[in-house]
Amino acid sequence: MPLPSSGEIKFSEIAAEFGLGSGQIAMSSLYGKGNAPAATGQIRMAADFHGTAAGITATAVSAASLDISTLFVGTWTSSDAKILQVPSAITLGPISVPAPMGGTLDIQNAGTILGASGGGAGTNPSGNGGAGSAGGTALQILSNGVTVNNTGSIKGGGGGGGSGAQGAPGSTTTNSTVNLRPIYYPQRRGVVPSPAGTGWWTIKSPNSPNINDFFGTTSSGTASANFGGHVLVLEGHRRHPLSSGNGITFGNAPGKTYNNVTIGSNHNSYPLSNNHWWGAMPGGFVEKYRTIINASRTGPVVTNYTGGAGGAGGAGAGYGVPSPASGSSGSTGPGPATDGGTGGAGGGFGSAGSTGSNTPASSGGAGGAAGAAITSPGVNYTLTNNGTIAGNT
Length: 393
Description:
- This protein is mainly β.
- Helices cover 4% and strands 32% of the residues.
- The protein has three helices and 21 strands.
- The protein has helices at residues 11-18, 45-49, 211-214; strands at 56-59, 66-67, 81-86, 91-92, 95-97, 104-109, 112-114, 139-141, 146-150, 153-155, 170-179, 183-192, 197-204, 221-227, 230-235, 248-249, 257-271, 285-305, 374-375, 381-385, 388-390.
- Strands 11, 12, 13, 14, 15, 16, 17 and 18 form an eight-stranded antiparallel β-sheet that branches. It has a five-stranded parallel β-sheet with strand order 1-3-6-9-20, with no helix packed on it. A four-stranded parallel β-sheet has the order 2-5-8-19, with no helix packed on it.
- Strand 12 and strand 13 (197-204) form a beta hairpin.
- It is rod-shaped.
């Protein structure tokens, strides 16, 4: 067991610790023991023996992380007592005591041992915010036989902040005039053989869209024949000539009224020499019309806006991150959409990160959990603390 780290120290305690027997002790027998010089020089009771112990001693230097077994190469699994000294000027990132370890280990910490910083959740483009990362453990002990004498600081990392929620969506409705694509309205005009008269029939074919199809209503045909390589459907009711102007409803499209309609037409006569369509018509004729229609429609147009992205969470305190960071603001929502929520702040040493801000549409992400000062899954250790501990042990 290590000698007292402060106060009075007795020769008998030194003798017992270093196996020097009982009775009178020669000062020369103290050389090479504790922190005393190896062979010659002044021996100082307090400076050379406070907190020392018999066994193999290693001294840590500042590093981002440390596997303690690397300081005891060749003796880590032996039954020797091992001592790790962390001087006050030393700062270490996460350190670990791996298994298996032989003998005992006394960690004499007068310096600073810090867990890793928990990362903040990134910017959140949609929905609920993301969770921040947990802070890291400062000292992980995976073997039995470890004693920790702390006069310095052992601090778990702070959890990262959660990201803010996405802002609520919005929409606007405005009246807008939409120009429709020009279409062709094919018609045929022919002599009706019996009774005598002239009729109009609207024809639709795969290569010439019917006006009703264009406006979302399918016409019902009553006869069909093959004409000019296309399947033509003759509608069974009379058609009125098309008109230009405003407030016009085409064919079988009730409730669909269009403005700024312009009509342009061209036609030619096609003599009926045989049964091209709808039976024989002796002496009759067919006029083929191709009417070009341009139209526009005025009506409500709805524009949807996505809510602003949630802000990123701040990083927690940890090795290399002396202070926790604040979360960033969410993006501004376009139009009537709301802004994204602000990201949560990172946690201080040994503390959880903050939750990101909510919005009317979504919830902010949870803050990351606090890092532990010391963890020892499945093993036992002894802690004597006269310094600072931040986080669970």
